[in-house]
Amino acid sequence: MITRRNIITFGTMVLAATGLPAARAQEQRLKVVASFSILGDLARQVGGDRIEVTSIVGPNQDAHVFQPSPADARKLAGAALVIVNGLGFDTFMDKLVAASGGKPMRVTAAAGLDLMKKPAGATDDHGHKHGAAAQKDDPHVWQSIANARRIVQMISVSLATVDPAGKAAYDANLTSYLARLDALDAEFRAAIAALPPARRAFATSHDAFRYLARDYGLTSHAIQGVSPHAEASAGDLAKIIRQLKASKAPAVFLENVSDSRAIARIARETGAKLGGTLYSDALSLADGPVPSYIDLMRHNMNQLAGALAP
What we know:
44% of the residues lie in helices and 13% in strands. It has helices at residues 4-18, 24-28, 37-47, 70-74, 92-100, 145-162, 167-193, 210-216, 234-247, 261-270, 293-308; strands at 30-36, 51-57, 81-84, 105-108, 201-204, 219-222, 251-255, 273-278. The strands form two sheets. A four-stranded parallel β-sheet has the order 2-1-3-4. α6 packs antiparallel against α7 (167-193).
């Protein structure tokens, strides 16, 4: 009788007879390196089992303050494709690619997207303030599902370029994933539509959610600029407290990569509800609440809708 065990055993014997190690399939996977965990997940969704993905800045780590090491450069050895965000968010990747000695194809996630400007007076990753004349593009593009659709399409095209034999697989994975993103977008729109217009404002520690707010008719306030580690002054806190009181924002939220003390103080002084934790710039570990991009966006949607509801 031919059983599954027989088939597996026969396959192992063939590999042994031909001198091919059992791990050969693993070795043949296309090596892809992403700058941080969210882009790594988007690549994995499109590439499936044809690719091996490494994220330089891993889950629960903050790319804003990441300091690469020589070991990180070694992670790029043999990479066929490198995926970066761009817009100054992950400039450390330039040095890592150069140090690796390779010449991988590069995908810049923010290229060609409908970008938002950082607000005037926003602080950058180093805590420096910029006036209106020095405004730059907001790098948190992944907080828009519409942007995520464009990013995975770029990744699919690039994977097929470096691995033409996998094009059919990448196309199929892309089609499936785009359908999941469309379903998620519909969930988001329904959840926000259920909120009264007066309850669609919120505050967070750093300015990471402006794309999300733009897409779904929300108003976001932030204590800090685009970096969660740019220190907020007493004046910054006073300003955000005045804004929240004026807008009557019903909720403020913690973030997974930010200090919670300032946002907790603002909640006390404005009377706004202290909502749950929003995930901005990194996924959680595999056993955490947001191990994938879709999990991250759905989690944030549920936190927002729950706290902003009457």
